[in-house]
Fold this protein.
Amino acid sequence: MPAVPPSVQIQTVLYDTAARAVDRWVRAVARATCLGRAGGAVGSVRVAIGDSSAAPVLDATAVDALSEAAAVGAPGGVGAVEYHFFDANRGSAGGHNALMGLSATDLVLILNPDTVAASTLLERLVPRLADLSVGIAEARQLPVEHPKAWSQPDGDTSWASGACSLVRRSVLEEVGGYDADTFFLYCDDVDLSWRVRLAGHRVVFEPSARVFHDKRLDAGGRVVVSAAEEYYAAEAALLLTHKWSRPDLTDIYRSGILAHGSLRERQAVEAFDLRRALGTLPAPLDPEHRVGEFHEGGRWAVHRW
Amino acid sequence: MTASPAYGPAVELVEDHAPAGLVVDLGRGAGEVAGAVTRLGRTYVAVDCEGSDCEGSGCAGAAQPGFEYHRIEPDAGEALPQRLREILAGRPLGALLALDVLAHRDAGGVLVRLRDVVSQHAGAILVVSATNVTSVEVAVKLLQGRWAPAGREAPPHRPPDQTPNQTPNRCAHQPVALYCATALRAIAARTGWAEVAGSDLALPPAEPLSPADDIGPSTPLYRLVASVRTQSGPHAQVARFVRAWAPAPPVPAPPVPAPPVPARTPAGVAAVAADAPFLSVLTRTLGDRPETLEDTLLCLAAQTCTDFEVILLVHDAPDDHAARVGDQVAALPADVAARCRILAVSGGGRCRPLNVGIGAARGRYVAFVDDDDLVTGDWVEVFHELSVRGPGSVLRTGVASQEVASTPWPDRLGFSPVSGITSPFPGEFDMLDHVFENRSPLCGLAFPRSCFRHLGIRFDESLPVLEDWDILLQAGAWCGVTSGSAVTSLYRRWVKGGSMTHHDDEEWAAARGAVQAKVDRQPFLFPTGTASRVQALYDRAADAEHLANAASYELARRNEELAELDRYRKDLEVELEAYRRVQEELRRSLAEAEGAASRAAGEARRARADAERAAGEARSAERRRLEELHLLRQQFVSSASWRLTRPLRELGGLARRAAASRGGTGTTDGGDRDTTGAGDVDCRQRR
């Protein structure tokens, strides 16, 4: 560990998130901060919440209450909880980019609002970035663990989920943060991870660092997916294959969706076609395919099962 | 006049616990009591304080010959202690028998007054009795819409020397005391008495109360009620409580409990959770899986409904492991840690900590999560919703499964899933299915605490496995099951590593047999709709039987065909064998013929060779002979005689030619040809 523990900004972007869930989120990160500071893993910690909802999720009283809860959970560890109502839906990528620009902390912990950080999250995750070759360290999600593979014992992995990733600020600045112009909700984390790796940094998975990601399961044990998720996942798949120089896969996905996809997915294809017609698609990267991975079933990494 | 049926146990209590002194019977002065007390070497004093309630009924007490007898007016009230002191007249009191006092309209007041008297005599006891309103007998009668507790219609226990025609015909106006054990303890405490001993009167064993028109002990209904009551408490078979009390400081009655709080939505339940949470979550751990336990605790910390407590049952863990569990709980957010308790449990098998936890649980429902289970954020919330749908029933949610294995993490030994999430358990609960096998993991169940607290259900600690199946069958049969299909928990199945206790097939089979035997031992309550399910199963079985019959018929037909084919095959085999024999014979004959031919050919070849050799020899001999002849001829023609005779031979030749030119040949036998070669010489000479 460095002589001076790194400073961290913990941030999330709300979208019609229930106030109780925000309260749960803040209490958890406050507790993680408390233990992280006590163990010397982190120095100063600030908490920033962005809100992409149409109307503010939190009022001033609620924000004060959150600040108080954070102060109780981590005495002296977390200052006032910052709340920024964007008054526009910036999506996940745009919202996080905006929040990143609000501070100059050494590290940025990106969290989904429907997560609950383990108390040990920071003390387990931050040390992974003591290795300067590491650009992003990702925590293990519960109760549904992501199946993407990671190397043992170093934990190198194809990409890090934006549900809970700790990113070195210098790396973020080097690659320009999330590509918010291209990705709205999904695959922004895959794209960021690959650009970080393309820049020569490692992306690692730390299984002992935990975060609860509030996914729900249907009667068959499958993760319940909303209609919006269906749309943005399809759009993101098209954009990702295009941006990472796999036009062949773009065509395959596109024709597959048009032949067998749902209404939402076909709408995503229409949006993609429109971008292509307008010339607003991003310039392709990694033509030699050094970083981008595309596997059967729309997977961006080898899966463990 | 007869005594209370409780008199026998009462006298036993006097014998065992009363100091020397008078035995004063505030009863009816029954002769049996008097005699029994006297046989103990004690002085019996009868005090008849009944009267007005029974006036005109002929059951008023009466003096027993040879015993001291007093009568106290029924409305003595506050004067009762004084009247008793007058009767005692300074003599020491050993015991006061007040077997019917608890039925008094002012039982509490009477008990307080009696305490004034008894407390003045060191060690003296009060013996009371009361009908147990919680007995199986009462329960069965109430089920029939009848009400006649023991001692009302007939004595529950007949003394050995009492024949049926001596059954006492007690007065219908006789007061009946109705108490459960708790109420008995409460009135004792409130009026300043402490229990010294008890000698309760049992129900008669397996004797029909009234065979003609009662629900008898052998009926399924009676047996069901008996099994429920026996499971739920220790007094199911007690007809009357008979207790000895000694004076003690009175304990104030507890305040009247507040009415139950109506169910609230998850968003509001936290406010009322402090005293009696909706759910108690019991987590057993050996303390040796800190990483999986941290997962479990994180899942619990992330619940959307926070109206629950967590009891961590640290079972037989070394001190350092137990301390580590404490540290993990302390690390949780304060509001979560405040809802956690840690209990150390020693001894017993895997069920022991669960039963300990049940005893410590305060929630209206009790759920179980092992230290490697995962739950979704709505686990408690869904239980709460189900409790509104089916209050008081067992709650069941869907459970998914995932295989995990030990695997190294960057800095420690960890674990990792090795399979996707599957959903092998049915979404809806079916009791009929569950009688055959368990299809509901424990982490998907929540039990109403009443089934533990009031029905006495517990995990069967004799079972090494399948304890969850056993308890679900018990609680589900009596309380019913309300189920939802959403999956809210993830059962981890270890395929490598972990610290699971492994059991062999024999243990599983034995446990399965034990659980099903328990089901068989008593009537089993199936939920409504089971008849239709059974009908459906019966129909399926009938269909299956029909198919089986059809298949059997077809099988028989095919077998017959096979048999026919077999017979044909055997015939063919016989024919084939005959053919084989013929073929063999032919082959042998052919071989012999071939041998003969071969031999003949050989002989022919030899004969031919011999002939050729003979011919060659003949030719050689002929050649030799010709050569000899030639030599002889040469010698002849070279001879002088031949040369001298030459002119003669030339003349002879001319003569033969002349004759030939005249048409005559001379001779036709060619005799003139010179077969010695001489002619040739001639020819050559002519050319």
Observations:
- The longest strand of chain B covers residues 481-496.
- Chain B touches chain A through 43 residues (CB under 8 Å).
- Residues 530-637 of chain B form the longest helix (108 residues).
